[in-house]
Amino acid sequence: MTDPRALPARRELDRQSHDQTSEAGRVSDTPILQRRRTLRTAADLVQAGLVEADRLESLQAVAERYAVAVTPALADLMDVTDADDPIARQFIPDPRELEADPQDLSDPIGDEVWSPVKGIVHRYPDRVLLTPILHCPVYCRFCFRREKVGGGEAVLAEADLAAALDYIRAHDEVWEVVLTGGDPLMLPAAKLKSLLATIEAIPHVQVIRIHSRIPVGDPERITPALLDALSTQKALWLAVHCNHPKELSPAAEAALRRLSGAGIPLLGQSVLLKGVNDDADTLAALMKALVRNRVKPYYLHHPDLAPGTGHFRLSIKRGQELVAGMRGHISGLCQPTYVLDIPGGHGKSPIAQGYVGEDEVTDWQGRRHDYPTK
């Protein structure tokens, strides 16, 4: 349940955070406090005209359980005349989030099983997740960490962060550190720069990866100060979360250009969501739009069994059909790996349909061809 103390904490985080860029894409040093305000309550959404007033009470009940945040950048993309708007569906609370489903899991991908110290998940041998912050610029209604993000604890306490970094130093098998959350790019630029320098100084860590919604959800945060913070000697990759081509607004595309122009390689992470991108044309358009913006599609996630997200789920069979439909029809650059995070902490598994059978191989058009597979 959302901590009532969290709202002031999130606003304070905004005040401490990055500077901004103008709508024209020019970078400035204007404090983020002077920007249009992020919508954080059901009343905010009504006042902004994004939802009807008669929905206020039902949405307030959802907001009391799960955090709400809609940035001006995303609010501007919503079509209030479209009941199926793919942006609104991802970020506007829905009463169905309070419906219990026996399949729901509070920790759907099993992070807790693999967390030796606070802020660390060490599921795979050569990499760890580090969660320095549990706040996001926007809150996805399908988030698999929705029971944790958006609470009163904005940033990992200094003592906990020190212990997490000590854990990484003590495990020389750790080749890659993945910063996730929350959204690590919500950290003030100076704090992020210091954290990355500390990680870089660990000899056995060779790669740093950051997962973020900010380039599309709050593109004004991609500022000179942030780009400077992301300037590292060791390899740093940024995985951008984007689920619909409509999210790639001119401001988002400008932010991605700033990132790629700074030499930061970009990966795309998307979630396959019922009612958002679960049709062949939309999925293909999304992947092509990412590649056009120098973002290589990396993972297409099957939706997790997070509480209150059943209305976003589709069958794996349908997902396989959609992914197979892209093969051969759009560039190989546009092909993500379709994966499921197996509940219980068992990790990701590729779940696209197979193309190899007993002494035969299936092509992209579904035709079978003889081939000695043994």
What is the ordering of alpha helices and beta strands? HEEHHHHEEHEHEHHEHEHEHEEEEE
Mean pLDDT: 89
Q: Low-confidence segments, ≥5 residues, pLDDT <50?
A: 14-33
The DSSP helix count reads 12
Largest sheet: 9 strands, mixed
- Rounded to an integer, what's the Rg over CA atoms? 21 Å
Structural class: alpha/beta
The helix content is 25-40%
Q: Would you identify the CATH architecture?
A: Alpha-Beta Barrel
- Strand order within the widest beta sheet: 3-4-5-6-7-8-9-10-11
Termini separation (Å)? 54 Å
Backbone shape: globular
Beta-strand percentage range: 15-25%
Could you name the CATH homologous superfamily?
A: Aldolase class I
DSSP, total strands: 14
CATH class call: Alpha Beta
Give me some keywords for this one.
374 residues, alpha/beta, TIM Barrel, nine-stranded mixed β-sheet, 29% helix, 17% strand
Explained architecture:
The protein is an alpha/beta fold and 374 residues long. It has one domain: TIM Barrel, CATH 3.20.20.70. Helices cover 29% and strands 17% of the residues. The protein has 12 helices and 14 strands. The strands form 3 sheets. A 9-stranded mixed beta sheet has the order 3-4-5-6-7-8-9-10-11. The chain has a 3-stranded antiparallel beta sheet with strand order 12-13-14, with no helix packed on it. β5, α7 and β6 form a beta-alpha-beta unit. The chain is globular.
Reconstruct the topology from this structure.
Blueprint: H1 6-16, E1 19-21, E2 27-31, H2 42-47, H3 56-65, H4 72-75, H5 86-91, E3 120-124, E4 127-130, H6 158-170, E5 176-179, H7 189-200, E6 207-212, H8 214-217, H9 224-229, E7 235-241, H10 250-261, E8 266-271, H11 280-292, E9 295-301, H12 316-326, E10 337-342, E11 347-350, E12 356-357, E13 360-362, E14 368-370
Parallel strand pairs: 4-5, 5-6, 6-7, 7-8, 8-9, 9-10
Antiparallel strand pairs: 1-2, 3-4, 10-11, 12-13, 13-14
